[in-house]
Design goal:
With about 160 residues, the chain is of the alpha+beta class. Helices cover about 45% and strands about 15% of the residues. It is built from five helices and seven strands; from the N terminus they run ααββββαβααββ. The strands form two sheets. Strands 1-2-3-4 form a four-stranded antiparallel sheet, with helices on one face. α3 crosses α4 and α3 crosses α5. The protein starts with 6 loop residues before the first helix and ends in a 5-residue tail after the last strand.
Length: about 160
């Protein structure tokens, strides 16, 4: 908080690492809202750090750095870019049905059309990776007329 309200001072303050720049006089409610927003962003970052770079579910692990899927037995399975992004989108929305449109928007690696079956192909490929380890694994369910549901317990 400062009395300096020149645009150059604002820019210098923000470029020096300030999270926000509030000039006097100020509305206390605006200041409170800005503090709450900053706290929310910091807490969201901390939650992300706690999750780390692996998403684990029922003995499996998806390594976000290596883009590898690890089986409960510790075997690594490589994933294509599309398979990785699809699986990550499903994991991050576990327990929620995701439509093809939602999944395609999360993957965003090429142009697509409403009748495109790219998501269906990727789901089939990811299911095969799971079934190579266990023929009974059915983490991804098809919800006919809607999309796909990822249903294991995610930690």
């Amino acid at each position: 908080m400062t009395g300096k309200d020149d645009p150059v001072d604002r820019i210098v303050g923000l470029e020096s690492g300030a999270d926000d720049y509030v000039t006097k006089p100020f509305d206390p409610r605006e200041l409170l809202s800005r503090v709450k927003n900053l706290l929310w962003r910091v807490q969201a970052q901390e939650k992300q750090k706690e999750k780390g770079f692996k998403r684990k579910f029922e003995g499996w692990a998806l390594d976000l750095n290596k883009r590898e899927l690890t089986t409960p037995a510790g075997e690594q399975q490589s994933l294509s870019a599309g398979e990785f992004h699809l699986l990550l989108a499903l994991i991050e929305n576990a327990g929620e049905v995701m439509t093809r449109d939602q999944l395609m928007n999360r993957i965003r690696n090429r142009e697509w059309y409403p009748d495109d079956r790219y998501i269906d192909v990727l789901v089939g490929q990811v299911r095969r990776k799971f079934r190579q380890y266990d023929h009974e694994t059915t983490f991804i369910s098809t919800i006919h007329g809607t999309g796909y549901l990822f249903a294991p317990t995610v930690t």
